[in-house]
User: Fold these one by one.
Assistant:
Number 1:
Amino acid sequence: MRALTGNPAASRKGRLDIWELLIRLVLIIASLACLLPFLHVVSKSLSSDSFVIANKVFLWPQGFTIEAYKKIFADASILRSLYISVIVTVLFTILGMVLTICAAYPLSRSQLKGRRVITFIFLFTMYFSGGIIPDYMNINNLGLMDTIWSLILPLSFSAFNLLIMKTSLTSGIPVSLEESARIDGAGHFRILLSIVIPLSKPIIATLSLFYAVGRWNVYQDALFYIKHEISLRPLQLKLYYLVIQASESFQLEATQVSLSNPEVLKASVVVFATLPILCVYPFVQKYFVQGVMLGAVKE
Amino acid sequence: MKVASASKTNETALLRNKQGLGYFLQRDWQLYLLLLIPLSFVIVFKYLPMTGLVLAFKDYKIARGVWGSEWVGFEVFRDIFSKPDFTRAVRNTLMLNILDLIFSFTMPIVLALLLNEVKSVRFKRVNQTMLYLPHFLSWVIIGAIAYQLLSQGNGVVNNLIELMGGNRVPFLQEDTHWLISYLAIGVWSSMGWGTIIYLAAISGINPEMYEAATVDGAGRWRKVWNITVPSIRATIVTLLIMNLGKIMEGSFERIFVLQNKATTEYTTTIPVLVYRWGIESGNFSRATAIGLFQSVIGILLVITADRVAKKLGEDGIL
């Protein structure tokens, strides 16, 4: 540590010293640790059985083949799970955003009487909840068990997203703008639709991504609420039974596609289930970082 | 709505221009109407389940319903406290989460400090993109990748170990190894993502402080230790308090995908027990009680941590 204090000016100019190299090395190792596991699974999914059984696949496909993927696309139950996941995610995201905007806009207006109490009612849910069993019984009592709605309705309100949206609207939509619109005779609905929403597109996009990725990745509620309707299983749950629990085998086991090793299939299902996320990842990452930073802003 | 209007009357009484509740309702009815939609959702899906907590104090019989079942006071709690599984679950939950706090909580801080020391913007960006990736994967996918990597029979890590002449390791099939794998997977999935908030805090530091330190002859590590770390202390404390509240919780999804029959010693945690007792065995009273126990302890921990933080001169979160 002492040796380093020798020439402070040099390190500020960005010259590569031994510490800079060491830091970079640590960071490279850390990021490779994040990337390589996935790369391995992709390679495995594209390799032929014999190489996988012989434990010869590391980071590059051996005996390249897409047989496993052919099999996935021939399996109706996996495709249906994908379909359910897409439907649920889209509906959930739309509903989540409607609820967030409907709550955030009024609460961001300082003229609203009682907004502190109402804000508290919303935010309290962040700190205390009934818990797994009361939630489960609630869904049961509402008759939502084994329906697609059990995956859409209960989680659709997020107090955290409300906080972000509210902060953004409070600072982003000045009261003067709203007042001038009111003088021109616009009501709150009109202001919301033609001023607030268009002006808040970036934050709406960000929060929609939060909702969508969140919904896409959760499997706990499906595990609890989708018990008997196997056809309603979203992709993550299907994946759970198929790969982790290995209690389900591929539907079309005896088709023309011949694969004897479940390992290759498992790997390709993992990749298949990750592809949607990977496709949007480069685009959503930036928004996510923004969202997290917004969330970090305390009011 | 009732609570809201009650406070309204209180607040209006204090107003100089003594306008009544009716005035606001009339002026802002559209806003109240908008609020009704999310409020009804929160009431139905968040507050209504809270009434189900009474199950913890009842001997729940399906035939008699929640309200028809008999009150038993703290009998259910006495019952679960005497169960060895409960003691084990509390011990495991505390142990896993404290270890998680030590590793998964500190790793992002270290990474953020390191990332901040890198001057090349491009190098930083490429690294961050890779580090953020695991955050976007679900626990099922992470679990599946973990099995592909770490399984004893054909996991690639074990293949490599064997190739280098070592013995295959039961990473996920034996209790102690499982514990280490569990922690490592936790660090893996969250380390990159956690840096964002610290990097944001670091970017808010006044650069003049570094310049002044440079003039005073401070080296790289001295600046990190005496400027960067103290500047992000408030952020660290806030996140620490929030994490302390979760110390009795732990992610059900994470444990559930990584658990297997061979590793029940450490995988019996509170959320897993709630699932096993409640949803698998249908003992709702018992499972509700253990869930309530966990939330109450969680809230108490947050409040205590917040108090302590404030005593030490930090902002706290409450």
Number 2:
Amino acid sequence: MKALRLHNELTAIWRNEPGWRGHLRSVNHSDIGKRFIVAAFVFFAIGGVLAMLIRAQLATPRSAFVGPDVYNQIFTMHGSIMMFLFAIPMFEGLTMYLLPKMLGSRDLAFPRLSALGWWCYLFGGTIIVVAMLAGVAPNAGWFLYPPLSGRTFTPGINSDVWLLGITFVEISAMSAAIEIAVSILKLRAPGMRLDRMPIFAWYMLATAGMMVFGFPPLILGSILLEIERAFGWPFFDPALGGSPLLWQHLFWLFGHPEVYIIFLPAAGAVSTILPVMARTRLLGYGAIVAAIMALAFLSFGLWVHHMFTTGIPHMALGFFSAASALVAIPTAVQIFAWLGTLWGGRPEMKLPMLYLIGFFVVFVLGGLTGVMLAMVPFDAQAHDTAFVTAHLHYVLVGGFVFPMLAAAYYWLPHITGRQRVMRIGEAAFWLIFIGFNLTFFLMHLTGLLGMPRRIDTYPEGMGWTALNLLSSVGGFVQAFGFALFLVDVVLQIRLGRRHARDPWQAHTLEWAMPTPAPAYNFASIATVADREPLVTAPDLGVRLARGEGMLGAARNGWRETIAVDMTTGVPEHIAILPGNSWLPIATAAALGGFFLAMLAGLYPVAPAFLPVVAWLGWRWAWTNGSRHDVGMVDAGHDRRLPTAFEARQTTGWWGSILAIGASATLFASLLFGYGFLWTVAPGWPPPALVAPSLLLPLLALAGAGCAVVMARRDNAMIAAVGQGVIVLALVMLLVVAAPAPTSHAYAAASAAIAAYAIFHAVLAVLILAFVFARERAGFHSASRSGERRIARLWSDHAAGAGAFCAVLLVVPGWLA
Amino acid sequence: MSTIDPAGPHARSVAGLWWAMLGGATLLTLLVFALLALAFRRGGGGDRTQDPRLWIGWLGLAMPGAVLLALLGFALVIGARTLPVPSDDAVAIDVVARQYAWNVAYPGGRRTQDVLHIPAGRPVNLRITATDVIHSLWVPRLAGKMDAIPGHTNVLRIEADAPGTYQGECAEYCGTGHKDHGFTVVAHDAAGWTAFVGENAR
């Protein structure tokens, strides 16, 4: 009875409001996660239909099914949708749904941020699909290489749709990355040391870290290319000192980590499901963690293998070839750890296991062709042919889609609370597996016979005809398999019988709750003493429902969960999470207005949306905090803990650290671009340099010094004035001393560097003004100083960037 | 246009690399699939925790490490053979790609479009660039490909064993005419080459 009362009290605090209002205002991680999964599957279906069109076009030589204009849009959209609108959102959704449950927490660290990400994903994806239906889809390839994607050769809005739509969607990826990393580091069950985390959490920690550092180069590249298209700043135009290769470096600096960003969550699912299916424990937990970290680190050092034929110096080719081959070792460690796990257990041929075998077979073949392509001379032959198409589908379908299908069958009972109906899943597997291999195995040969990628027709007599027809047949077999999978899932949701808890006898905490999951996840928070809590305490779920864990009572209408010390898992404070809110959807709509105005070419209108976004952000932050000291409160188990209002290492602080890290990565990419253009691009040194002013850099330094010192004296107002001085100095530098940004890539890059610093200084002014207003409103005290410390992080970063940029811009002029 | 039907030293050594890699990959595939299949045998490993040193140390680290080192060394040797190292009898030819044609300029001033004339049995250094978007020059039976990038000039060494004609294509997506952006390579014997470029260009 206590369990039922607790359930009702907690549900009242955590549930969505009824009706549409509840849907639009929901910030619950289970809701948002499920939405991501469903939307990603819809985009997968759209991308799949595009793939069918490609295979229909290529089934016969001299095909007149669609012309080159339409075909170019089709293959560009197939790649873009599958990467940005299916793969990434799919694992984000799965992770958002699962992570808090696996970690024994009640929600993610920033619930409203996940909701914002969802709306940005939905709106951005909608823009892209609507553009496709309107016939103005991106058509320069999913990699969008300039000059082809530039204004001269793509005069329509096709490329702008990609640049603006994908960047809009990327907001969701960046917020998910920060959210996932902070949630793993801070919001875990008490006692869950780092080495007691479920292996999936390690995989996602690495993935989130890679996203924080991997996405900024692409975001920067997209911004630069959009500025070039809209305002004529020639970053990539070789006639004015730009270089098309700069785009390729920025794109693949993201693009290669990207494929491991997609693979690692899927491998995390494999490492989670496989031991359960084999009724044993995972072999080599520590070695796998080391392999994950090695993979994450190495993946940033091999982007050039997408550019082996662009005329890279021979020494660099050798280095990147070796790095590309080396990355196979941490992958091999995981493969053999999984095989060893199977050998050490009693594997049962249940449905998820079948899909895992499909993963093994397909992914190993893809990994081996990957090692082949890492060899420069072979890549020079295979690059841009159907061989590479085959390889990338083997690693992405093998390394992502098959594990996700296994995950779907493994976790669907958790999401629906129901069992499978008929044995459709096996039939779907064989259709997908046979169809996939028929399609893509033959493509290796088609490529070796010289068939390039991205051609819409080909002549007879090349030896490609029969192979392409078989590939197309295989493609349609696959499509039937995926359709069956969808039927199977719908049937399970509609007709499946209810099952008892934990149908797999699994190891991890997400099964220690009723299914479907309640809004609050756990009625009380488990304390963990080992890696497989459900093996040691099978009745844990029932005890938690009775309120026998920590925080086993409703209080003040607060959404509470435990925040722990990052490494030891000792409870540190009580995180108090925000409730349902209009702010996420309103902010996404305002951002959408900005992106749509840019897309429509209404460049004077677009900036008008930014103050709206800033105002919503202000409101967003204003709802946090407390106007009085709360002190220590009861956390259950005879412990008293401070609340987040009075804690030092809050989730907000760590989130800011990661956000600034991402921003610094974008800045580092910009500096890389500046140096790259100086050394590699044609048409340098530039005709005119920034005038070697002495006064303006000194002014910026003075402003930065003032901001840093005054923020430490808790004088937010004067610190904001210091940031304002930085803005003034940099704007003066651009207006008075710098050549016009449209004149040369040097001037454009200098202006971009200044713009970065100006943006952050303006942001710092806003944040410091916010702190000042909050002090006046009584939100700060000696123990409630978290906001001041977060503001100091942002202000220091802006001051450092401002001073550095002001000096950097005038250095070439001084030296000349 | 088959890369595994080579007609020049560069393409031949890469084809050799391919067959060697295919053999190695086949063996590794059989090893992994056999281990996977044996895990499901009746009365198999069953509940006996395996030795991580065997699975992770030997199979996961040492084996791929050794294979990859050998392969990298092999590929490095092959790659060095394809470099445009200075040599006395090499011919330098300029190729400019554009949507959708290949403009070629020879020593001695002669020019052609969409046909690339080369001497057979002698190394040829193609100096490749583009005027509009990125293209990629590829003659599958003779050599690997090299991108034609506006603002940059790249050098690719190709060589044909014997006189004859070979098909070339654009390998980098370059717009709606990408599929038809091909060209023909004509390899001449010594006398034919001299006649083509003219005496003064020797």
